[in-house]
Recover the amino acids of this structure.
């Protein structure tokens, strides 16, 4: 609150005003971004730790706005969710990644997997399941090559209807990953009820590996928990060889991170695959 000069206080300050305007400004430009083709997908490889080979990619959206410049998904996804624009953006992301990965599979003769981030707003749509099935049908991608990444925020709303949708998709062979695992507030009992195939251990656990004494056993416990539940365990944000060595020794299934590669534009994906390096 600030003195307004007339002896009264107003609940308002300049930084709040600026943040609000910035949100409004982003939302305004977000509205035309789809039609203007301002979005692009980058792809970050995932490596199978046992073979050391790239087994798939995560699609990550990039927005280059002619007026705002590059805007991080960390700042615009939330705004896209609040304004429900994420429904259209997310549909484009899914269709585009399925088509792209089918092309890479055909070109390389290897069934690479594609992981796509899905917002809870999308999951809540009545036609979400249909939309996923259409994306597979039109691209020709096999269901087993598609992984949907969801976060623990799905625990907040309509839990049952969402679980039913995920259950159905999983029964069709589509994989479901729980993203940022360990950062939310999910309890282990929730974890048991969720129809998932993969645990994606959050980067913060990987970061802590070299710093905190107990973090190594913590990471090993998550890997064991996942395996006991029949899940694949993926580590995200792996930047150092020592982290990869530890994860390999601990039986983690896959790694993703700058150590292997940053997310790259689609033109650079094939360069990562030929010649195929072993990590
Ligand atoms: P996320 O799903 O947890 O994705 C991982 C983020 O970590 C990505 O940031 C990726 O570029 C970054 N990253 C990967 N490896 C490393 C590493 O070794 N070190 C560091 N420091 N960072 C690494 P990005 O691309 O900026 O995306 C941020 C978040 O935005 C994502 O986090 C995801 O929640 C959201 N997002 C991105 N694309 C989409 C999308 O198409 N749809 C939806 N709904 N959300 C998206
Ligand atoms: Ca993700
Ligand atoms: Ca994350
Ligand atoms: Ca995430």
């Amino acid at each position: 609150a600030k003195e307004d000069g007339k002896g009264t206080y107003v609940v308002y300050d300049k930084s709040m005003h600026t943040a609000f305007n910035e949100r409004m400004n982003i939302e305004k430009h977000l509205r035309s971004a789809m039609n203007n083709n301002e979005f692009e997908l980058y792809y970050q490889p995932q490596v199978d730790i046992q073979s050391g080979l790239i087994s798939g990619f995560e699609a990550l959206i990039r927005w280059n706005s002619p007026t705002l410049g590059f805007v991080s998904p960390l700042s615009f996804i939330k705004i896209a969710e609040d304004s429900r624009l994420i429904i259209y953006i997310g549909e484009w992301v899914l269709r585009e990644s399925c088509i792209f990965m089918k092309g890479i599979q055909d070109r390389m003769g290897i069934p690479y997997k594609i992981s796509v981030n899905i917002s809870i707003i999308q999951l809540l749509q009545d036609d979400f399941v249909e939309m996923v099935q259409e994306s597979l049908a039109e691209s020709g991608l096999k269901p087993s090559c598609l992984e949907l990444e969801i976060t623990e925020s799905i625990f907040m709303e309509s839990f049952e209807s969402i679980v039913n949708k995920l259950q159905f998709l999983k029964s069709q062979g589509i994989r479901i990953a729980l993203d940022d695992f360990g950062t939310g507030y999910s309890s282990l009992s929730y974890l048991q009820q969720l129809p998932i195939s993969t645990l994606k251990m959050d980067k913060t656990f990987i970061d802590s590996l070299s710093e905190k004494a107990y973090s190594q056993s913590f990471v090993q416990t998550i890997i064991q928990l996942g395996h006991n539940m029949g899940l694949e365990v993926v580590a995200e944000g792996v930047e150092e060889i020592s982290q990869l060595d530890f994860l390999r020794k601990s039986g983690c299934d896959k790694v993703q991170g700058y150590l292997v590669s940053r997310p790259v534009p689609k033109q650079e994906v094939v360069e990562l695959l030929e010649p195929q390096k072993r990590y």
In short: The pocket of C2E (ligand 1) is lined by residues 44, 60-61, 72-74, 77, 90, 93, 117, 119, 179-180, 236-239, 257-258, 263 (CB under 6 Å). The mean pLDDT is 92. The chain is about 45% helix and 20% strand. The radius of gyration is 21 Å.
